[in-house]
Specification:
Radius of gyration: 22 Å
Strand content: under 5%
Number of strands: 0
Distance between the termini: 58 Å
Structural class: mainly alpha
Oligomer: single chain
Length: about 70
C-alpha cells in the first residue's frame, strides 16, 4: 500500500473532482498515477529508440510504399 501526502490545493482539487464524478478519490488518484507511469514508460522507449537511431539507416516514404505494394 502506498500513502501519499498531498498539498492542500491538490487535495482539494482531488476532492472536488471526486464529488463531481462520484468516483472515490483513491480511484481517481490510482488512474492518474497509472496514466502518468504509462507516459513515462512510453517516453523511455522513445528516448531509447532515438538514441539507437542512425541517420541514413531508414527508408524513404517511396521505398516503404513500394515495399508495401501501394506505390503509384
Amino acid at each position: 500500500m502506498l500513502e501519499l501526502n498531498l498539498d492542500p490545493e491538490l487535495e482539494k482539487t482531488l476532492a472536488d473532482i471526486a464529488a463531481r464524478t462520484g468516483e472515490a478519490p483513491a480511484d481517481i488518484a490510482r488512474k492518474a498515477l497509472l496514466a502518468y507511469l504509462e507516459d513515462l514508460e512510453d517516453y523511455a522507449v522513445a528516448v531509447e529508440a532515438w538514441k539507437a537511431y542512425k541517420p541514413g539507416s531508414g527508408k524513404t516514404t517511396q521505398e516503404m510504399l513500394r515495399e508495401l505494394g501501394v506505390a503509384d
